[in-house]
Amino acid sequence: MMFTPIELASSAILLFLFLGVFSFLLSWNQRVMIDICFSLAAIASFLGFAAGAWTVANGGTEKIVLLLGLPDLPFHLRLDPLAGFFLTVIGLLSFFVSVYSIGYVRGFIGKRSVTSLVIFYCLFIAGMFMVVMADDALIFLISWEIMAAASYFLVLFEHERIENRRAAFLYLVVAHVGAIAILLSFGLMAGLATGFKDFSGYTFDAMRATQFPVDWATAAFLLAFFGFAAKAGIVPLHVWLPEAHPVAPSNVSALMSGVMLKTAIYGIIRVTFDLIKVFPWWWGALVLVLGLISAVMGVLYALMQHDLKRLLAYHSVENIGIILIGLGLAMIFTSFKLPLLAALALIAGLYHTMNHAVFKGLLFMGAGAVLHATHERNMEEMGGLIHQMPWTAALFLVGCVSISALPPFNGFVSEWLTYQAFLLSPALPSPLLKLLIPLGAALLALTGALAAACFVKAFGVTFLGHWRGHHNPEVHEANWPMRLGMIMAALTCLGLGILPTMFIGWMDILAEQLVGTKIGTSAGAYGWMWLTPVAPERASYSGIIVFLGILAVVVSAYLILHIRPGKIHRVPIWDCGFEKINQRMQYNATSFSMPIRRIFGFFFSIREQVRVGSLSGHAAFPKRLHYYLRIRDRFWGWLYKPIAVSSFWIARKVGRLQQGRIQAYLIYSFITIIVLLVFL
Amino acid sequence: MNIYPFVIEILQFLVLLGAAPVFAGWVKMLKCWSQGRSSPGLFQPYRDIIKLFSKDLVLAENASWIFRFTPYLVFGATLLAGGIIPILSTDLPLAATADVIVLVALFAIARFFTALSGMDIGTAFGGMGSSREMTIASLAEPAMLMAIFTISLASKSTSLSQMVQVVYSGQSVLRPSIAFALLAFVLIVLAETGRIPVDNPATHLELTMIHEAMILEYSGRHLALIEWAGMMKLFLFIMFGIAAFFPWGIAAWGDLYAIPFAFLFMLLKLGIAGVSLVLIETGLAKMRLFRLTEFLGSAFLLATLGMLSYFILE
Question: How many CB atoms lie within 10 A of CB A1?
Answer without folding.
Answer: 3
